[in-house]
Amino acid sequence: MFGKGLLKGLKITIGRFFGKKSTVQYPEKRLPLPDRFYGKPDFHYDKCIACNLCVNACPNKVITLGTDTVEKKKVVTGYHFDQQYCLFCGLCEEACPKDAITFTDDFELTTYDRNTIGIEFVKQEQVDNKIKEIKQAAAEKAAAEKAAAETKVQTENTDKEQTTNKEGGA
Amino acid sequence: MKTQEMLLNVGPQHPSTHGVFRVVLTLDGETVVNATSVPGYLHRGIEKLVESRTYPQVLPYTDRLDYLAGILMNWGYVHAMEQLMEIEVPERAEYIRVIVGELQRIASHLVATGAYAGDVGGLTGFIYCFRDREDIMDMIEMVSGARLTPSYMRIGGVAGDLPDGFLEKCQKFIDYLPTAIEEYNGLITGNEIFQHRTKKVAPITAEKAINMSLSGPILRASGVNYDLRKARPYSIYDRFEFDVPLGSNGDCFDRFYLRILEMTQSARIIRQALAKLPEGPINAKVPKIIKPPAGEVYAETESSKGIMGVYVVSDGSTKPYRVHFRRPSFVNMGHFDELIRGWKIADVIAILGSFDIVLGEVDC
């Protein structure tokens, strides 16, 4: 009979009409995202060792890493993530040996103008703190070394005195 | 009566082209007299772009060829690179590749099936197919972190092991798929209007299909038994039992229905792979900086649209000297303008839909 297939199709759609919904009301309700989801990138300043591996791993030159050498130590002074060119492939995350660059599950990345797409992760105060920390550590280390050297000299001197005394005594 | 031929542009913005594709039709009334296809609206120069990227960095660009089957595109590239560098891929990685690859094939065929139903006027079928495709997209998102651009494969293995809960979800989907296919058959395949629109429309003979070097479901719909997974098994496809469905008439209906049949076979492969999935490493030992020996390689895999070939020339440095992709959609489109001549304008949409082109792949 012609139209049998049509009726069968209608039966399916009517059945589905009373079935469970497959959609959710988006902005209010959200579906769970998997752990591996690549959303907005996140940078952990304290973990970064300024090795440049993420910069080299990126296919699109998204990441610009600024470094400075303070007291023979590398300090990250800038980490610019030009998000508009990001492919969200995760190669930078894979390359990072310290998990300093990760991806969050924030996928709403729309901005009103182009200048706000790029993310500058490093704040000046973070850099200042880090430099201060390093300088302080270096100063403390130097002081400790100096103190150690002095005590060494002192002990050597006392040793010498003792030996001369001994010699004199003999 | 004096009649005049009319020039008509289909596209570049037209829903049936599934992207940006233009066909210039010369019409005599409603009949197509001449046709010229004009691709290139989505050309990004990927082949040139990747020449300035290192070998691992090429991978995210392959996602953007056939963006409905990103994993299969990844596979084509890594398969070529593994042949060039003579890397043996670990067992577990091969099984994972087969599982996600076949899932991706089902997803791609679901889009083809659904979009075809939409093209010929049944938008309900489209929604039903996309509903089930969403399950696969969720699974691909689970393993790779992205829905359409997974970049999941790596030279020598895969990016990450299967996450917890994936196997159960996959098994559940495979068990559910026959019910879904029954629904598609009831909703689309069995519909008389759909059958009238597609049966005996634009048949391609087996001889013609071979001459035009068509591949994939379009070739097999014409009755040519050529599936790379069977004809020249790559990866571990020789270990699975599956059939290659064939069409008999090579018309639009056969091209459409073949994809539904192929979904069942893909599910069969996944079921076997899930049962046999071994433990072990997921990555071969590959040097951190990939420098393949100077030379060239051409490797082919069976993507959802046909034979995906990747040609890589290495000059021994960290960047490829030349990469070329043989994209099945592009090659298949070569027969399109010849095929639509003599058919009515409504058939043009039906024929274009049955080809299942993806413009990211046509233009590259």
In short:
Chain A has 170 residues and is α+β, with helices and mostly antiparallel strands. Chain A has helices at residues 4-17, 53-57, 91-95, 124-169; strands at residues 41-43, 63-70, 73-81, 101-103, 119-120.
Q: What features would you describe in this structure?
A:
- The complex is a heterodimer of chains A (170) and B (364).
- Chain A folds into two domains: 23-122, Alpha-Beta Plaits (2-Layer Sandwich), CATH 3.30.70; 124-164.
- The model of chain A has no long low-confidence stretch (mean pLDDT 84).
- In chain A, a hairpin with a 2-residue loop joins β2 and β3.
- The longest helix of chain A is centred in the C-terminal third of the chain and has 46 residues, at 124-169.
- Chain A is 41% helix and 15% strand.
- The termini of chain A are far apart.
- In chain A, the strands form two sheets. Chain A has a three-stranded antiparallel β-sheet with strand order 2-3-5. In chain A, strands 1-4 form a two-stranded antiparallel ribbon.
- Chain A has helices at 4-17, 53-57, 91-95, 124-169; strands at residues 41-43, 63-70, 73-81, 101-103, 119-120.
- By secondary structure, chain B is α+β, with helices and mostly antiparallel strands.
- Chain B has a single domain (45-342), classed as Cytochrome-c3 Hydrogenase, chain B, CATH 1.10.645.10.
- In chain B, 49% of the residues lie in helices and 14% in strands.
- Chain B has 15 helices and ten strands.
- Chain B has helices at 46-49, 55-63, 70-85, 91-119, 123-144, 166-189, 192-198, 206-211, 217-221, 228-231, 252-276, 328-333, 336-339, 345-355, 359-363, and strands at residues 6-10, 13-14, 19-20, 22-28, 31-38, 153-154, 157-158, 295-302, 307-314, 320-326.
- In chain B, the strands form four sheets. A three-stranded antiparallel β-sheet of chain B has the order 1-4-5. A three-stranded antiparallel β-sheet of chain B has the order 8-9-10.
- In chain B, α2 (55-63) packs antiparallel against α3 (70-85).
- The radius of gyration of chain B is 21 Å and the shape is globular.
- The N and C termini of chain B lie far apart (46 Å).
- The mean pLDDT of chain B is 90.
- The interface between A and B is medium-sized, with 28 and 33 residues.
